[in-house]
Design a protein that fits this description.
By secondary structure, the chain is α/β, with parallel strands linked by helices. It contains 9 helices and 5 strands, in the order βαβααααββαααβα. The protein has a 5-stranded parallel beta sheet, with helices on both faces.
Length: about 200
């Protein structure tokens, strides 16, 4: 089973690549979706967040109040590290469960882990690390045009993420997503061919 990490900064086109690989037959595991699932009511991570940050981070129905939690963690690096220390292990555990389930269903499955951030410590788990790469100016424009952000908001969101050079240093494959959608899809198709027919 090839296990592939697919990463890239905000508005880099990573989701487009993931969707194309899914169309071609990959099993895509979405880390962002898992990070939402593991803090649903009844999940141990939500209980741990409440214990760490208080009842004020819960809505009246018991679900996580993301805005309230965001106000705490985005201005406080220690609080953010504490939150990450709760959520990240839960996401890793859930992702490993899904990787195993994919292989049990199909031992030859190509599993793609769509993950916003990956660091050098996690790279060894993956056969390849694919980076979606687009120039900062392109990503800022996409955030303004497609997500309705102001230019200032978009620049801040891009700047807050892992530096592109560090991400690219981990890459075994780079897909240039700065051009047309067709060009991105062509590169995703070429990647798929490499994954299913390795030389």
């Amino acid at each position: 089973m090839p296990l592939i990490a697919l990463t890239g900064g905000i508005a880099s086109g990573k989701s487009t690549i993931a969707a194309r690989l899914a169309e071609l037959g990959a099993v895509v595991v979405d880390a962002d979706a898992l990070s939402r699932e593991v803090v649903e009511p009844g999940e141990p991570a939500l209980d741990a967040i409440r214990d760490a940050f208080g009842e004020g981070v819960l809505l009246p129905d018991g679900r996580l109040d993301r805005a309230a939690l965001g106000r705490i963690v985005f201005s406080d690096e220690t609080a953010r590290a504490r939150l990450n220390g709760i959520v990240h292990p839960a996401v890793i555990e859930r992702s490993h469960d899904l990787f195993r389930a994919a292989v049990e269903r199909d031992p030859g499955a190509v599993v793609v882990y769509d993950v916003p951030l990956i660091d050098a410590r996690g790279v060894g788990e993956f056969e390849r690390v694919v980076v979606a790469d687009a120039p900062v100016a392109t990503r800022v424009r996409r955030l303004v045009e497609l997500r309705g952000m102001t230019e200032h908001e978009a620049q801040a969101r891009v700047a807050a993420q892992l530096d592109d050079a560090r991400r690219l240093a981990l890459a075994s494959d780079v897909i240039d997503t700065g051009g047309t959608l067709e060009h991105t899809i062509e590169q995703a198709d070429a990647l798929w061919r490499r994954l299913v027919s390795p030389s």
